[in-house]
Amino acid sequence: MLKGIDESIMDAGIPEYVFAMFQGKFAIITPALIAGAFAERIKFRGYCIFIALWSLIIYNPLCHWVWAEDDFLFQKGAIDFAGGTVIHISAGAAALVAAFHLGPRRGYPKTAMHPNNLVMTLMGAGLLWVGWFGYDDTLDVFGIHGVAALWGAIGLTFVLRPGTIDVSVMHQLWVQTEGCLVSLTYSGVMTFILIVIVDKLFGFRMSEDEEKAGIDHSLHSERGYGMVNLNS
């Protein structure tokens, strides 16, 4: 996996190993964003297989198309400073397709679904406020990540510093739009194909009884709060 990567220093002044770790972090976080679209509705085995295939078949090609100097979107001049096209649009499109294919949670919106533990919810929100709030926002994935990234990638054209590009604004606007369309289309179509294949071969959506019982109990034989008083 690390063949060809050594301790040499890149043109940017950082070691290749550091850059590989940096890219690896993006490869890990991107499929995790999709989970917010189908939390508590899919089987763990199907999820693991889907995420592994999604990373290899969808994320890796998109990453290379946009960030590799020898691939077509980079050579066209598509600009993606922080992963809007590679990460957020692709994850948003995948999440939207997955949500439409799976449908809502059983009982939603007629059945009230109260928070599991407000204390842990508050602790988690606090950790995100202290840490990196903008990255782990996973609920409403398409609305937060997908739409915001679409606007960011396209709107970037109008706020570039003079001299950043050597083409007209309208040309760059089309290049940015093309990058967004490629990411949306490729991620959306391939995600649908992957979900169908994984569902047919391994199972993806939980049964009604499993979903009502909860994934911890039905699939992992565990309970989040199954503590026993040993002194009783």
From TrEMBL:
Residue ranges of the TM segments: 20-39, 46-67, 79-103, 115-135, 141-160, 180-198
Main location: membrane
Pfam families reported for this sequence: Ammonium_transp (PF00909)
Record bears the keyword Transmembrane: yes
Keyword Nucleus attached: no
Keyword annotations of the record: Ammonia transport, Membrane, Transmembrane, Transmembrane helix, Transport
Protein name: Ammonia channel
GO cellular component, one term: plasma membrane
Similarity annotation: Belongs to the ammonia transporter channel (TC 1.A.11.2) family.
Topology class, membrane: Multi-pass membrane protein
Source organism of the structure: Pontiella sulfatireligans
Listed Gene3D superfamilies: Ammonium transporter AmtB like domains
GO molecular function term, any single one: ammonium channel activity
Subcellular location: Membrane
InterPro entries assigned: Ammonium/urea_transptr (IPR029020), Ammonium_transpt (IPR001905), NH4_transpt_AmtB-like_dom (IPR024041)
Domain Ammonium transporter AmtB-like residue range list: 9-135
